[in-house]
């Protein structure tokens, strides 16, 4: 099956967007490595909640790489002779920058900064992704789960 340049660009674009899905940062999503690990539990009361934005990935090779490939293909169709090579290089650079920007935007998350007063009197703040559009509310009693370098707030 032959795939034209337009089809290849479309395929790469779809692959780029599929690769943008990052790990969830909610309080109820666990990585494979966190399963079957001891989590230390503390309890507290939510003092305040502030909506925040959790920046998207800018270190992923998917957006930059796929963007560079698509841009290079598109740029190679500009001009003729050595102009095509220059167009391919410029297209690859521009595509890489655009791909990286798209990846950051696609992986950006709605977050919440949760200020907690723990039962031991300590006040702490933690940022995590908002789950299903539901923010914690001041006055709610919550659990703080800690394991390794990961801490999460749950009910």
UniProtKB/TrEMBL annotation:
GO terms for cellular component: cell outer membrane. Keywords: Lipoprotein, Membrane, Palmitate, Signal. Residues 63-103 form the Glycine zipper 2TM domain. InterPro entries: Bact_OM_lipoprot/Surf_antigen, Gly_zipper_2TM_dom. It is found in: Cell outer membrane. It is a lipid-anchor. Residues 1-26 form the signal peptide. This is Glycine zipper 2TM domain-containing protein.
